Amino acid sequence: MTYMSIRNEWQKLVADGVLARLSPFIGDPAKRTVLMCPEVEEIINRPMEEGEEANRRVRLLAKLQNIVAGRHLVVCMTPYDARIANMGRLDPIEDCVWDIRCQDEPAVRVFCYFLEKDVLLAVTAWPRSVRMRWLGWLPLGDRYSKQWKRGIRVAKRHWGMYFPAEKPVCGDNLDEYLSNATPE
To answer: Which residues, 6+ apart, have CB-to-CB distance to 100 below 8 Å?
Structure first.
């Protein structure tokens, strides 16, 4: 895989409206790129009334926009070892699936892949332990649950739909994935 070929592919998917590119907060720089599959874009952009759902969705949007702005991230490179990480690799690591950890209660996990350094694709969002009707998935529960396995399968299916001939970034060097990040 070359970054140039996958870059051309994701830029075409954005230009064609298949994937959405998240804008930073007004006044923030765009130092990283967060692309969203339709499921995540719909969660972020769906009209909402004030209340608990709107509050949680706005905090999820803020988490993603902080990534776009290039704010410092703490990253867990070893599955199951996270304590304070904003993001982490999921098991099995050879699948190259990550999650963005939106830990404000109720917690949400956004499954994602890296297309190139500082460019990630948010493919699906799941509740961590409390059911949220607006997400449409059952909570992930503990790390051995069927829901975790299902979430990873859903993420892999999305990758195959958008980038069937490409491989995501996959390796043990954090610098291949992100700038302004430190390992946990």
So the answer is: 63, 64, 67, 86, 87, 109, 110, 112, 122
The mean predicted confidence, pLDDT, of the chain is: 93
Q: In the predicted model, is pLDDT for residue 7 greater than 80?
A: yes
Report the alpha-carbon distance of residue 139 to residue 156 in Å, rounded. Answer: 19
CB neighbour list of residue 15: distance below 8 Å, 6 or more residues apart? none
- What strands lie across the sheet with 33-36, from one edge to the other? 20-21, 33-36, 119-127, 108-116, 98-102, 87-89, 73-76, 181-183
User: In a 10 Å sphere around its CB, with 0-12 CB exposed, 13-18 middle and 19+ buried, how is residue 144 labelled?
Assistant: exposed
Strand partners, 100: 87, 110
* Interval 155-180: pLDDT, tens: 999 999 999 999 999 999 999 999 99
Q: Give the dihedral of Cα atoms 50, 120, 103, 97; nearest 10 deg.
A: 130
For 23-177, where are the alpha helices, taking DSSP H only?
38-45, 52-68, 146-162
Tell me the domain boundaries of the chain.
3-178
Per the CB < 8 A criterion, the answer to whether 184 and 74 are in contact is yes
Q: What is the pTM of this model?
A: 0.94
Structure tokens at 145: 């649950």
Q: Are 131 and 138 in contact (CB under 8 A)?
A: yes
